[in-house]
Design goal:
Layout: E1 2-5, H1 11-22, H2 31-38, E2 48-53, E3 56-70, E4 73-85, H3 94-107, E5 113-116, H4 123-128, E6 132-136, E7 139-143, H5 146-151, H6 168-171, E8 184-185, H7 189-197, E9 205-208, E10 213-221, E11 226-235, H8 244-258, E12 262-266, E13 282-284, E14 289-294, H9 299-305, H10 315-318
Parallel strand pairs: 4-5, 11-12
Antiparallel strand pairs: 1-2, 2-3, 3-4, 3-8, 5-14, 6-14, 7-12, 7-13, 9-10, 10-11
Length: 321
């Protein structure tokens, strides 16, 4: 068995391996999704390693390039994402070999740290390879239809998120310095269009007053209710303030349109989301577990990332896709 860098001609075999190893119950796998995720990413093409045996690809490991920004400075990072081992080759240490080899290669390319949101089954393996727990992403939640939510009557959205033209002119006015205390994803019109408008998995919606804020959302169906997930709440221009009464009015309209029972937003959002009327937001440590591993950043700077204000993840940053 040999480890080698993936080639463009490997994509169909990689997708077939992902389907064989992981199935498609959570997220459908396709060459289109792989291309969008690992080739079209505006932060750069993903470094990908494969394990090959007898001319067949039996293992794959991919990291997505990610960029963070703070006060105009850019920080190169990686997000550990797709990995799969053929069922006949599992338990032979291939996952660890692929991951450590790819980490070694990426450390030579000035990436400063890597992050991910591993599930409980894979978390112990990452911790053994040097990842550290940052903790669960804090959430702010508002239950807007408690009876429907707890009785299961709000099980599915009333309708799919409507098709919309995406506001490139508004994207251009999103502030690039929203997290003066810590790092946040580097925002640009290219990134926002790729992440939300061109996403082949989910349909996202947006609303804005065109002057003070842009809200990007997704309506996610759960078994007993539907969730109005605020993926991004971004002020426009150079001010952190936004038109709160106008936003509240539009939020209430959108939530009612889609029949959602729950509203969610990241508790690390740098834009405060206030309770209003019957919409009472409360904090909940229910988000995904975030882990980090240093790849070359100064130790003091790495330790800073574990502080509550050291990183500002949105829900859109950490969604599985």
């Amino acid at each position: 068995m040999q480890l080698r860098k993936a080639k463009p001609t490997d994509q169909e075999a990689i997708v077939a391996l992902l389907k064989c190893s992981l199935g498609e119950t959570l997220l459908p796998k396709s060459v289109k999704l792989w291309q969008w995720k690992h080739v079209d990413n505006p932060f750069g093409k993903s470094p990908v390693l494969v394990a090959e045996s007898g001319g067949e690809i039996v293992g794959v490991r991919a990291f997505m390039p990610w960029r963070f920004a703070r006060e105009g400075q850019s920080v190169k990072a990686l997000r550990a994402v797709d990995t799969a081992i053929h069922p006949s080759f599992q338990g032979k240490g291939i996952f660890k070999k692929l991951t450590l080899e790819l980490l070694h290669e990426c450390m030579e390319d000035d990436f400063q740290f890597i992050f991910n949101t591993p599930n409980p089954q894979s978390l112990p393996g990452y911790l053994k390879m040097g990842w550290q727990k940052r903790g669960r992403l804090p959430l702010r939640l508002a239950v807007v239809r408690p009876l429907e939510m707890f009785l299961g009557k709000g099980r599915s959205p009333k309708q799919e998120v409507a098709l919309q033209e995406w506001p490139k002119d508004v994207f251009n006015t999103v502030s690039e310095n929203l997290a003066p205390e810590g790092l946040m994803t580097a925002l640009s019109d290219e990134y926002l269009l790729w992440r939300y408008a061109q996403n082949p998995l989910f349909r996202y919606g947006w609303f804005s007053d065109g002057e003070s804020y842009l809200c990007i959302f997704r309506v996610k169906a759960h078994q007993r209710f539907s969730e109005f997930r605020i993926c991004e709440l971004l002020p426009l221009g150079n001010e952190m303030a936004y038109n709160i009464p106008e936003f509240n009015k539009q939020l209430k309209k959108q939530v009612g349109q889609y029949g959602a029972s729950l509203i969610s937003i990241s508790g690390e959002s740098k834009v405060p989301l206030q309770s209003f009327g019957m919409y009472r937001f409360f904090k909940a440590p229910k988000g995904p577990m975030v882990t980090l591993r240093n790849l070359g950043r100064e130790q003091q700077a790495i330790e800073r990332l574990f502080d509550p204000t050291g990183l500002a993840f949105s829900l859109g940053d950490l969604e599985l896709f």
